[in-house]
Specification:
- The protein is of the alpha+beta class.
- It has a domain of 78 residues: Alpha-Beta Plaits.
- The chain contains three helices and four strands.
- It has a four-stranded antiparallel sheet, with helices on one face.
- A hairpin with a 6-residue loop joins strand 2 and strand 3.
- 10% of the residues are buried.
Length: 144
């Protein structure tokens, strides 16, 4: 696994990382897993329309089913959007059937990841319009 911190020198990295951890900006680290090599050849997005407000049974399923990689509670008709990794279509069907016990589901199989998860990036300063660089102050003019 390669960890790349673009543009950060070693002497700057450790204090910065420690500060981000201490302030709660960085809450943990994770490995990037190749799902196919790990045996999960089917990736799907499942939308769940979950009527009612009793979410504890769904939370118990989420704790038990490690194939459900992510679950987001959303606005709109679909109350939850789940990212599911399965070893086969039959495996995906089994998971979706379990989810269907909670409400109506819509399943979309993922062909490819156009933009894999990358996490947020700090905003880059925009260069000044007059070509004087990103940190140039206001242009001074002579009056008179």
């Amino acid at each position: 696994m390669n960890i790349v911190f673009t543009g950060l020198g070693g002497s700057w990295l450790n204090p910065r990382m420690m500060r981000l951890e201490a302030t709660g900006v960085i809450t943990g680290y994770r490995a990037e897993v190749d799902l196919t090599k790990a045996g999960f050849v089917v990736l799907a997005v499942v939308r769940l329309e979950y009527p009612g407000s009793r979410h504890e049974p769904l939370r118990r399923l989420l704790e038990r089913r490690w194939e459900i990689l992510e679950c987001l509670r959303t606005t709109g008709d679909d109350c939850h959007v789940l990212k599911v990794a399965a070893t086969s279509m039959a495996h995906l069907e089994q998971i979706v059937n379990e989810l269907a016990a909670f409400g109506s589901t819509t399943t979309n199989v993922v062909y490819s990841a156009t933009l894999p998860y990358r996490g947020p990036r700090p905003r880059q300063p925009r260069p000044a319009q007059d070509g004087r660089g990103p940190h140039a102050g206001p242009r001074r003019t002579r009056s008179g």
